[in-house]
Amino acid sequence: MGQAVLAALLADKTYSAVHCVGRRKLSLQHPKLVQHVVDFQAPSGLKALPHVDDCFIALGTTIKVAGSQAAFRAVDFEAVVTVARAALAQGATKLGVVSAMGADASSAIFYNRVKGEMEQALQDMAFKTLVIARPSMLAGNREALNQPSRAGERIGLALTQLLKPVIPANYRSIAAEDVARALTRTVKTAGTGTYRLLSGEMQGAAARH
């Protein structure tokens, strides 16, 4: 997902520079791309970031890949909040973040609860504009999206494609490019407040660019 958001920003002529923060350096090169490798467990490097106007966060993992609930929370909550605070300190007034369908701070489901708590923590910050994308399952090759492959999702994606005509738009699988385009576009155009984008309204966003 992060790669799709990065691609959308690099293609957007309204952004003169794109500063990418990650745990490892990407092989991608672009004239306006500046990469910052950061250890999110000791994020002192974030203090050296330059002034920024808009911030986009697409950090995420799975409990299986992370190895434990605590390790999952360290990425999907703590790292996200750390980056957001650093961006705010460097002048960002707008924040766009990729969350998940079903995010709910009061949920009995751990994954949904962490995503909901992350959203709430971002809402409590002083961003002028907060845009939260809540996609359903991402369509496409997860390895190509630099995300872990999950057998259950492969089955789910196959079923959603088969039953697409009868599945409500918010529950259909969605391309990462659609999420990225909808998120970046809304951050640029939205006014003051918090906005949540569901899969149904993000479908086809890349084609409308």
Explain what you see.
With 209 residues, the protein is α/β, with parallel strands linked by helices. It has a single domain (2-202), classed as 3-Layer(aba) Sandwich (Rossmann fold), CATH 3.40.50.720. The chain has seven helices and eight strands. Strands 3-4-5-8 form a four-stranded parallel sheet, with helices on both faces. It is globular, with a radius of gyration of 16 Å. The two termini are 18 Å apart. 33% of the residues are buried.
Which tags fit this structure?
209 residues, 4-stranded parallel beta sheet, 7 helices
Describe the protein's topology.
Layout: H1 2-11, E1 18-22, E2 33-37, E3 54-57, H2 63-66, H3 69-89, E4 94-98, H4 110-123, E5 129-134, E6 138-139, H5 151-162, E7 174-175, H6 176-189, E8 193-198, H7 199-202
Helix content: 25-40%
Write the element-wise H/E pattern from the N-terminal end onward: HEEEHHEHEEHEHEH
CATH topology-level name: Rossmann fold
Spatial ordering of strands, largest sheet: 3-4-5-8
Named at the architecture level, the CATH assignment is 3-Layer(aba) Sandwich
CATH superfamily: NAD(P)-binding Rossmann-like Domain
> Beta-strand percentage?
15-25%
Overall spatial form: globular
* Largest sheet geometry: 4 strands, parallel
Kindly report the average pLDDT value: 88
Q: Given this structure, which CATH class is correct?
A: Alpha Beta
Number of domains: 1
Total helix count?
A: 7
Strand segment tally? 8
Structural class: alpha/beta
Rg for CA atoms: 16 Å
* Terminal residue distance: 18 Å
**What low-confidence regions span 5 or more consecutive residues with pLDDT below 50?**
none
